[in-house]
Amino acid sequence: MSRCMNLVGGIKILNRNFFVKIEASNVFLKKTYSTRELLKEAYCRTKLKCRSKKLPQDVNPKGVFACNELDLTEVKVYGFDYDYTLAHYKPTLEHLLYNLGREILLEKYNYPAEILNLEYKPNFAVRGLHYDIEKGLLLKLDSFLQIQFGAVYRGLTPVTTEEVLKLYKNRIIPIAYVEGDMRAHKANRAKMVHLADLFSVPEMGLLCNVAEYFIKNHIDYHPEILFLDVKNSVQSCHPIMHKIVAQNVEEFIRPNPSLRKYFQMLQDCNKKLFLVTNSPFHFV
Q1: Which PANTHER family would you find in this protein's record (predicted)?
Q2: Which residues pair with 21 in a beta bridge?
Q3: Cystine design at 15: which of 4, 5, 47, 80 (Cβ 3.0–4.6 Å)?
Q4: Known active-site residue 71
Q5: Active site residue 81
Q6: What backbone torsions phi and psi does residue 283 show, to the nearest 5 degrees?
């Protein structure tokens, strides 16, 4: 079996020559696989193998499993977050935050009026990505801080693997670059921002949309200034968002009738409950 590797659109392509036996004769075929297809194929094989295994009869297939034993009878206090935990927001909230942030960019920071034509793309960004403030790139890192080729974007445009390696010199990003160096004699702030919550998804959508507009129209911009403008715009519109959501709860929050029963069950079992949130009291 021979393999020839090249790069297309930032994704590795493996050319495999292999034999397929058809009616007792060997036929030589050639097929092209991307690493994404190979990974998906391996995942499907593993999934099929797991499904073929039978669980013991005393195991609940819908149960929650942990690596360490946990006796919930010993847990006396239960704490909950509010946003995107107890409050299950609909996609309409992302559109609302995006539109409000876009208006503030125009009114407060004097961005071009044409950005009002930039519509939100709900399937573009996901939680967990990193944004390189210095280079103006949105990218995906794994748990070992390795760049995932094919998941690096400048604006809405994918960045090729060649350019990524040229910019970073290596696939693995130093932890000080991602998290900053907090040693006393090297108080360097991080060059990257981790998009750890779901409120950051429309924020990144707006950021990449505006960056793409600047690039397409040959408008020079500073990536860090753009990032701060968008971040401040989206965060400053939260009080407005709270007011709009409170006036029309059904449009933005999915009802969960089981929550009341669950809380009542915990209270009946003499559990103490508390709520941790940065949302204002009147909104909650």
Answers
A1: 5'-NUCLEOTIDASE DOMAIN-CONTAINING, FI20020P1
A2: 26
A3: 4
A4: no
A5: yes
A6: -75, -45
DSSP 8-state assignment for residue 209: H
Spell out the domain ranges in the chain: 3-50, 66-120+199-284, 129-194
Task: Give the residue from 263, 273, 234, 221 showing the smallest Cα distance to 76.
Answer: 273
Write down the catalytic residue from 71, 83, 132, 181.
83
CB proximity list for 236: less than 8 A, separation 6 or greater: 104
Contact 130, 194 (CB under 8 A): yes
Question: One-letter amino acid identity for 248?
Answer: N
Long-range CB contacts (< 8 A, 24+ apart) of 40-43? none
Residue 140 structure tokens: 């995906």
pTM of the model: 0.74
169 conformational bin, left if phi > 0, alpha if psi -120 to 50, beta if neither = left
Q: What is the pLDDT along the chain (284 residues), one digit of tens a residue?
A: 444 444 444 444 444 444 444 444 444 444 555 677 888 899 999 999 888 887 777 888 788 777 788 788 899 999 999 999 999 999 999 999 999 999 999 999 999 999 999 999 999 999 999 999 999 999 999 999 999 999 999 999 999 999 999 999 999 999 989 987 655 445 567 889 999 889 999 999 999 999 999 999 999 999 999 999 999 999 999 999 999 999 999 999 999 999 999 999 999 999 999 999 999 999 98
State the catalytic residue, choosing from 81, 142, 181, 220.
81
